[in-house]
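Quick one from the shared queue. A colleague (R.T.) flagged GMC family oxidoreductase N-terminal domain-containing protein as missing a structural entry in our internal table.

Convert sequence to structure tokens.
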Amino acid sequence: MMTTAADTYDYIVVGAGSAGCVLANRLSADPKNRVLVLEAGGRDNWIWFHIPVGYLFAIGNPRADWCFRTEAEAGLNGRALNYPRGKTIGGSSAINAMIYMRGQAADYDHWRQLGLSGWGWEDVLPVFKSHEDHYLGAGEFHGAGGEWRVEFPRLTWKLLDEVREAARQAGIAPIPDFNTGDNEGSSYFQVNQKRGFRWSAARGFLKPVLSRPNLRLETSCHTERLLVEDGRAAGVVYRRDGVSHTARARGEVILAAGAIGSPHLMKLSGIGPGEELARHGIAVALDRPGVGANLQDHLQLRMIYRVSGVPTLNEQYHSLFGRAKMGLEYALFQRGPLTMAPSQLGMFTRSRPDKERADLEFHVQPLSLGKFGEPLHRFPAFTMSVCNLRPTSRGRLTLADGVGARAPLIQPNYLSTEEDRRVAADSIRVARRVVAQPALAPYAPDEMLPGPDIDDSEEALARAAGDIGTTIFHPVGTAKMGLASDPMAVVDERLRVFGIEGLRVADASIMPTITSGNTNSPTIMIAEKAAAMILADARGR
């Protein structure tokens, strides 16, 4: 293998996903800072990265997706799941659901209550607003003119209007906006799109600044390890086209490879649980047991209802005329089903009345399919997915080998607590209650999954949840933020890795607890805060 001489930068960012694109933009804004961004995936030069419905073709496709898989999960009755992660600049924002969701104010106030100053709702709301370009313009809760475009969906479905009315009849009130700190209620999801095209983090934050002479982006290169010298992250070693390169950092190395990539790289570099590293022949630079632990994800239970007398996308998908109409509508107006996010209608509610705040999120879709990558069903139907927003189950990420030749072992440990199994059972009951309301009666909804033969007992419903549950692609927490007194914490409140100078983590892996909703925009907020802290600390040195 060839090796090149080292090059030196002020900042090295590992990963050009959602977080890395923001970091690249902000850290290179000062022309004095020389910034290197390393992305293992390729460029986003494929049409399905940009047409919103392209997620159907991107997820599970090795061109766009790392195609990870979990280990077999006891809570899922022995099943293993596909675990999509974006494989291009923009990362998962190039293949995800495009849903703009911040979570709940109480999520961030909880982080502050853990002792993490600067992370309460009042602290993060201005950060969300600072990079937002919201279709309603600037106001108390939204910003305008930023890089992160937010729009209202460009199509409607009569069926979804009726589901929303059924939710109202079941006690879930309609609200105008999920992003004001309290998302309890029903509304249409706001989406990261611009005039009918997906708006990824690469389009918003990275591509507009690639002409900066002090910013260098390298794609299709794998970062193999961090250089740790005398307790400091001095740079990285990465490989591209069989050639090994070394890049050194005068300032900091920032990991933005996501909740799978960042802890994996740390472990390969000797930062992690000492016993695990030694087992794989890796010299221990820092024994930190929290690296790869605390994995959290939202498990969605995909309930499917067959209907009649109302249009769904299923029929249009299987009609030659319907497909032609969809294509023409998009080509001429950038409207119609090709602009669809995977879910259009959202509902947040409580699994039980005694819950302090909404702990369930529903994603409702006027379509149905067995799994991503498969054709839509030939019968008219809708899908009502529901997830537990604050699971108590905790998983982990472990090494498959000591050199990174194999993907890490992903063990989410879904439904491993009694509380999570109870919430899963309750969530199916809530869905059934909504569907049983008068608003949907004219369409004779018939439960296909989990099926009418599953009775209402907690045992039967929890087992059904294990049969139908799948990831909704929100892994977080594997390098959690915490206090120095917490042996499982990996970074402090300024996202500096405990015990290693010059190294930060700035992506979804730092979340101590998962946010109550889709996690992409909170990840972008984390990167925005991280960049500000990095630059502030540099000025103070």
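The chain has 13 helices and 25 strands.
The first strand starts at residue 2 and ends at 3.
Added to the table.
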